[in-house]
Design a protein that fits this description.
It is built from 10 helices and no strands. With about 240 residues, the protein is mainly alpha-helical. It is globular and about 50 Å long. Pfam families: DUF5995.
Length: about 240
Amino acid sequence: MTAAVDALVARMTDLLDPLQRAADPARHFLGTYLRTTRAVGAALDAGVFEDPGWVSDWDVDFAELYLDALEAHRHDPAEVPGPWRLAFGADPALPPEAHVLLGMNAHINLDLPQSLLRVIPPRDFADAGVLARRHRDHERIDGVLAARVAAEDLALERAGGRRTRFDRVLGPVNRRASRLFLRESRRKVWANASALHAARVEGAEAYARRLAELERAATDRVRDLLRPGPVLVRLAVHGFGVTLG
């Protein structure tokens, strides 16, 4: 792993320890994210990405949006964006996998487009070759995440996830669905990042307006996931990601 990713893993570990001691439900998403970050670090070491330096910078920047929100919520929940307020404020009695789903949804839909803009400056959006490399590395992350789905499913079961015999039979189906949802959301994320970039070029006011639209859409999606009923059905109908009009 790069030094920057090593430092990120250390920060995550420091934040996770007290959450685990307190049995705070936020530990479920952070624990999953920590393991995923280590997997990204291993992929960097293995030469999976075309531009490992850029991926390392992006990985750290993206994670810090979540970690900053997590720490801010401990001081004043009103300080954090809507999707994170709902995710962090969810019923602690929800199963671990529900807390992970809420965190993933808030982080991917709201934070990921913003992070892409922070690590892809306007000059890179204007360079077709550079932008294509960024897009390919963005898609390669799917492979890292997909490879983690089965292991994370097992980790959540060990953490107290609710698994009936029927759930175990459906496990392979649910894992395939998870991979499809991740791919679908990342396609939408790239489109949303492009929309935010167009607003950035237009000016600060236009960017703020589009970012507010994204936050509202991401908040509505987390709120939908919190409604009672079959979550996978709603994801199949509405998708995992959101789209800026």
